[in-house]
Structure formats: structure tokens, C-alpha cells
From TrEMBL:
Residue span of region Disordered: 285-304, 560-657
Ranges in a coiled coil: none
Protein name: Protein HID1
Pfam families according to UniProt: Hid1
Amino acid sequence: MSPARGQRVCSSVESYFSSYNMGPSVFPPLQPYKTGLFWFLTEDSERFVQGPAVAGTLGPLESPGILKPVEATDDAFWDQFWADTATTVQDVFALVPAAEIRAVREESPSNLATLCYKGEEEDENARPLAESLLLAISDLLFCPDFTVQSHRRSAVDSAEDVHSLDSCEYIWEAGVGFAHSPQPNYIHDMNRMELLKLLLTCFSEAMYLPPAPESGSSNPWVQFFCSTENRHALPLFTSLLNTVCAYDPVGYGIPYNHLLFSDYREPLVEEAAQVLIVTLDHDSATSTSPTVDGTTTGTAMDDADPPGPENLFVNYLSRIHREEDFQFILKGIARLLSNPLLQTYLPNSTKKIQFHQELLVLFWKLCDFNKKFLFFVLKSSDVLDILVPILYFLNDARADQSRVGLMHIGVFILLLLSGERNFGVRLNKPYSVRVPMDIPVFTGTHADLLIVVFHKIITSGHQRLQPLFDCLLTIVVNVSPYLKSLSMVTANKLLHLLEAFSTTWFLFSAAQNHHLVFFLLEVFNNIIQYQFDGNSNLVYAIIRKRSVFHQLANLPTDPPAIHKALQRRRRTPEPLSRTGSQEGGSMEGSRPAAPAEPGTLKTSLVATPGIDKLTEKSQVSEDGTLRSLEPEPQQSSAEGSPAEGEPDQAWREQRRLSSASASGQWIPTTDWILSWKSKLPLQTIMRLLQVLVPQVEKICIDKGLTDESEILRFLQHGTLVGLLPVPHPILIRKYQANSGTAMWFRTYMWGVIYLRNVDPPIWYDTDVKLFEIQRV
């Protein structure tokens, strides 16, 4: 692009923002569109007369009717579209309705083209307008005295200077790859924010495409912006990342400081987070991630690493490897996620941020694209600073149907973390930070917190969360071999879940329900085989509820019993009962999880893949390494879950072993029940009961024990060495990237952005196809 042409493009973009009172301009000012801009191009003047007026704009003109194409050389006509008064961004949205813009596009496309290109020289080799716009925005994001502080005594006064400066010297905030923290500047932050909003608008093409099963198609706007064509890609990426991770909403810690001073940095941080996650929208299932070699030397983004994806933002993110950079990122995200949890003696005295959903997507992207970062997170107990806020959000949102997307992203992150051994080990740290949650009081570890919250979600969440049950229990299975000591509260919660899931009416209600029982039995087996010594509470709870295991072993399979169970299903609308869960009192200062207010806006989400598509099984070797297990295409797995070979095979097998009623409702059969009942992994638990129950009963009779603590003391000193079956290999179900979750993340991300950008309402009342806008 020639300097002269570049200056014109930058001028036109800059004028768009200077009209919003965004501070001093470094370009020759152009004036904003006058009121009724698109009326001129399509409709008669009566609408202009009746519409809102802005001082200084043109008054009523002679009615031109539906205009025919106007020559670009007719300056007298085109000059009418500029006024000498400044308006705000809200004025532009109010005075130039989206419907009128679309009317121009449909009825007078040549006039719209002329308006966009007026002044432009004819050039066959010229860039498309979209590329020119994105490059101009990128230039403006590093424009001295407009969005960054000038390093020179005299202000930049020409487009050539803007194009020649090294923007790596103007990164917005200290952090990854940049040590200098520039002085805060309100005007610069506001200008950056408006430019980032414009970028989001450019990138929002994804909203107008229906969700497709294959997510390989990339967004051309994002693709160009994050390519080598954009010379500012690296400083832009680091500016966005550092701005988000360096933000401290609490400031100096003065109570009510957010009421005394307006925080102009938070809107910028929100937009930076949104632009960052949109530019990182990349399907990792279709690309090769750089090799993780564990090196911690070299530059912030070492060129020695194998080349990553063509998307430079994803590439840069995947190549960060300095420990100090990881620490900066992790501490920043943890600080912001923990912000809504801050409790003080003065109500509402601390500022609460609202962009935690964007932060969770960013954390997911970091872990998914940069395995070195994931290993760093799990290397110390710092991961718990991420875990606790996620559990807080999950518990708080469990009754709110407008926040089902938040529930999914939180569970997905925990599923990803649980695939690593270190996560299970870190959960053994005592939980001492008492964040008020609507859960029973307990004394224990972070593992207890996780299981108690999961129990609360399963037993008191809304029905749309039932597809997440598999994921929740898979997380517990993954960490169970490493849990050294569960509290009595937690042990009772696990046994209550088994009791609820193993009733005949629940087992026979749906083709997949028995999987939940298999997961829980696997949890008990892992703890008994690998962590028996410290888990006397769980062993005691298993002994107390031994009848549940005997009932499972003797599960009826005859048609009359099936019919009786189905009759009970029709009489019992609630899937789970809290009877016997021993709730107890909730934490002091907590509030019950509340449903959404009627009329709350929410966006629809695509369905998530089943747990067999979300994960792949790996076996833990003796040296601690993981060995991926090949799926067995011709049979069901040992736990009774569907075969993982041909996609439709499991469904065909279910259809063969069951039948459908005239209404299409699924009905279990004797053959179907027998197909998985024989695979219930009850051997270890039955052996434990066979050995310990007589001993406990004898002690109770001989010593007249009625005190629970005495029995627990006996179990603590007991042993089952040599009495249990040979320990089974530990199976871990690790998250695997797939196009289904990539599509889900895209839908969720843009839904969040749509709902969070209401001033101005950029996408309101447009033909969005990626999701539906619904009211609770």
C-alpha cells in the first residue's frame, strides 16, 4: 500500500473514532456522517424530518425519493454526508439504524460502494478494503499520542512515521517479552478500547454462519489479522495478553475505591480479553502443536521450536516457555478469577469484575495450546488458585439456566487438568481458605471441596446439567488413585451418589445411566487399591452402605422387575433424591444458588460430544508414564461403556439389546441388563466387605462399641495386604481435542461476547445464525 493511499485509509478509520470524542488526532480530521446518512441513499426526506436532530446538521432537503446510482464524481452530493459537529458512538448507532444500512446494501449497492471508496484512486492491485481496514486499525493501535505515548519530543505528524516506527517498543504493558510499564493514560486506553471494539465487529463474521459439524473453516478476518501480513502481530499479541494479566481491579485496596474513582482500565481489559480469545479461535485437533521439550532458556518465544500454526497469535502463545512469564500469566488470571470471591467485613466495598467467562476461555486456550504452561500450572499448588474460583462459579451457577455455558467451560477445564497425575496430587493440600459457598461445612482437603461441590451440582442443579454428569464423575475417577484422605462428609456424598444412581428405576430410565455406576465403582476401587491406609472414612461409609453393593450384585433382570421399575420412573419426576445425603448446615455467609431472573437473555449452545469422544483412555505404567490404550472396536469396554470403534456401533448394539415402544420411548430388556451387569467391577469391594464386616461386627459386640470414632480408629490400623485381588492398572481418561468441542467453544465464546457488548448494541437485531438469543 502506497504511503499516500495508506494515509487516506488511516485518515478515514481515525475519523470514525475521532468523532467519538476520543482525544487529539494525529491525522487531518474528517467529520462524521450527518444525521440521516442512509436516508439520503435510499429513502425520502420525511424520515429525516421526523427523526432525531443534531445541532449543526442539515435541515430538511428536497425529497430525492429512492435514488438511482449517483456518480462518484458528484462531489456536491457526496459532501452532504459530512457534518461539522462531533457525535458519540451511541449517537452513531441511534442515528444510523442497522436496518437503513442493510437497505442501502440491498437497494443501492453502488452508492454504498462509492461511499466506502470515495477518494480512493483506481488501482487494480489495491488491497481489498477489509485488509486495508485491519492494517489501518493495527497501525492506529500503536499510534503515538493517540494510543501510545510518543517516544519523541515532537508528535508524529505523518502516516509515513506511523508506518515506520517499531511497534515492539510501544507494547502497552509490562509482562511477557516486555519489561517496561508505560504510564497510564486515560485517553489512550479509551482510544484502544474503541479500536478493539471495531476489531471485534470485523471478526464477528462467525456469528452469521450456522454451526457446522466440521470446524475447519477459518475466519478470513482473523486469519489475515493474525498472519505475517500484519507487522504488528507480535506487539499486539503481547499487548493484549499483558494488559489482561497485569490488571489489578482492587488497586490500592482502599474500601469503596471503585465508587470514588472510575476505573477506565477495566473496559479496555474486557475488550482485550475478548479480542484475544477470538484471535485464538483455532481448532487444535487439526494442527500439530510444537513439541514440549521442557527447555527454559532463550528468548520469550524461542525460534528454535518447531514452526506452529499459521495463526501467529496461536503460534506465539504456544512458544512462551520462560517460567517467569508463566508465573506472570498464572498469577494474573488467578487474581482476576478470584476477584468475585473476595469477602470483606464491609459489604460491596471491593470492585467485582464481570469478565470471568472470557478469562476461563483464555485459560483453556493457554492449557490447550501450550503444554509447557499446563505442566507449569500443575507443578505447584498454584493450580488450586484456579480450582477454587472455578468450583465457586460452578456451585453458584448450578441453578441458573442462563449460565449453563459457564458450567460447561468450568467442567471442561477440570477435565483437562484431571488427566494429569499432578492435579490429583495437588488436591491433597488442606482446604483452609473459607470462600462462602452454599455447601455443607467440612474439614478436609481441596479434593473434599471438589467432590462436595460436584455432589451439590448433581443433586440440586437444573436438569440441563445432566449431560455433564459423565464429565463430573470422570474427573473424580481420574484423581481418585491419588486421594490420600477423604473426609467423612465427602465419603457420605460419594455413597449417596451410588445409592441414587443404582436404584432400578434410575438404571433402567436411559441407555447410558449405568455408566455413572461404573464410574463410581471405579473410584472406590482406585482408592481401596491405591490409597487404603488414609481413607478409613470411605471404608467405613462403604461398610455402612454395604446393602447398596449387594443390591447391585443381585440386580433383577426379569421382565416383571423391569416393568415395576419403569412404573416407578413415571411416578418419580425428580431424577435424584437428597434423602440420606446428610446435608448439614451450609457455610457461614453463603447464599443459596439462585435461578436466573425471568426474562434474562441467554444464547443457545451446540451439543457437546459424549465422554467417549471427549477423552481417550491411557494406562499408568509403573514408572508413572501414560500409555495410550487402543480402542477395542468389536466389543464394549470393561466398564460397560459403548465400544469406541465405529461411531454408530454402540448405538446399534443398544438398539439390538433393547426395544422401542410405540411412542418411541426407549425400553430396557433382559438381554441389555445382562450385557453390562456381568461387567460390574464389584470384586474388590465385595472382598473388602467379606474381610472387614465380620471384624467390625465382632469388635462392636465384644467391646460394646457404639461410638463411630472407635470403629474408625480400628479401620485406620487395619490392613488388606494380600487379601484383595491383584491391583488393577490405573486408567486415566485424558481430554482429547476434537472438532465437536472446538465448535462448542466458538458458539459459547461468541454468545458471551454478544451478551457482554450492549453499549452500543453492536449485534442487536441482526441475523445471527451461530446461536439463538433466548429469554429464560
